[in-house]
Amino acid sequence: MLTATFCGANKTVTGSMHHFQYSDASGKFNFIVDAGMFQTGEDKNLFDVNSGLIYDPKDLDCVILTHAHLDHCGRLPYLVKNGFDGIVYSTPATMALATIVMMDSAKINSSKKNWRSFYKDDVAAVDMTHSEDTELSQFDIIASTNFLIKGDRRVGLYSKEEVDKALTLFQTKKYRQKFKIHPNLEIEFFDAGHILGSSYLIITELSTGRKIALSGDMGNINKPIIEDPFISHNQDGLTHIYTETTYGDNEHSNESSKSQLQEVVTNTIKKRGKVLIPTFALERTQEVIYYIVELMRQGKIPKTRIYLDSPMASKVTVSFQDYPNLYDKEMRDKVNNDLNPFSYDWLHIIGSSQESKTLNYEKGSCIIIAGSGMMTGGRILKHLRFHAPNKNNAILITGYQAVGTTGREIQEGSRVVEIDNELVQINAKVETIKGLSAHADKNMLKKWIENLLPRSVFSNKSKLEIILVHGQESSSQSFGRVLKKAFNNDNISSYIPSFGESRVLWE
After folding, report:
1. What is the pLDDT of residues 252-281, one digit of tens each?
2. What does the alpha-carbon distance between residue 414 and residue 285 come to, in Å, rounded to a whole number?
3. Model pLDDT for residues 398-424, shown as the tens digit of each residue
4. Rounded distance, CA 477 to CA 19, Å?
5. Do 347 and 462 fall within a single domain?
6. Number of domains in the chain
7. Same domain, 141 and 74
């Protein structure tokens, strides 16, 4: 028997945590897929929903991580703090990047009392493009849960020590390397194409051949640096698919991100201005660097100094270079021909805060890439204070800006914003780059699912349920309608679970 309990990312975009209890003649085996942080909510409940657990971590036998974004790995140290000491399975790159993300999270957790910082700060790299009112109402529901375990706000979620202990529990597995988590349960990771090391997985019950697929976060196609999502075909025995639905109601724009970037940078440099790019540390920073360097090498934008001024993003960028086997062909060719964008002569990685301050007095044009992505903390604030008042400069927004953030104010046209208790004039040109999402849109998600489908559902020999998670309820509902129309098959159904709900998947 396999029983699922839904512990996160249900009718919301963040907090991925899927609990399973497998029972056979040998007893009960408990595991979760992902241990993510909730990153939206209000101050009054954000700590509560992250510290509240509806199961006891001491009962877990293992944790499986799909990738290193905070909303998928951020609560792992909290599980360790509360007694988990089993095995953590992930790909090698996920372990490396999760180390950076969890350490940064522990630092923020120990230094800030305002839990809304997890929503806004450098670790918050989640695509959210829908109404936040419905998202917040779901958090009110979750916060009212009768949790089995609750945290103490006075001591925070976890510290560096819990991160260190969590890291001793990892066992890494490569893509397509089958491994057992239980004598009768086998796991296989496949490249999800979302960020470096990201995976979706298939769980197989060896005695029956029954299978479950879980998407983690599926990637977008034609992203730079990493491979497109691997498409697996005809998974006979498949009974359930867990799929993210972040963009279950959207198609990505065909507008060229590179063309927008080229136009903004070229026009700013012509005015001897500076381009400020607030960006998230993991994946988005590396993608932006890739495009800028490529445009410079192609002669499409003038060569100018590029400064990466984010300690976390710098660590991630260095870590990216440890996994060239995960690059796509274009990136591998660049590396093999000494054209690695992360080793570009015009790219300078800023170390100390003192070195960062020297950029205030940089003469002439330059590009400054700094966190945080929503302009609510980090070194970007200092650069905004010094450079946003200059009409010759530009602020280039590359990701979602949440309501209530400085980034959202600037994006919506505010000419004056408050930064560090100081009013700052925004005279710089403000532009938003589209098309950089790391998430699959509804068409890519549908393609992934239709290729997984077992042949038996088309011959009335089996049924399959698609469980819609990691999306606002409206997005999940919309994607459910997309699937119903696409497959038009009574043997294929979809379901949107609620937080805390349990259901039997296999009898």
Report:
1. 876 688 999 999 999 999 999 999 999 999
2. 25
3. 987 876 789 989 999 999 999 989 999
4. 22
5. no
6. 2
7. yes
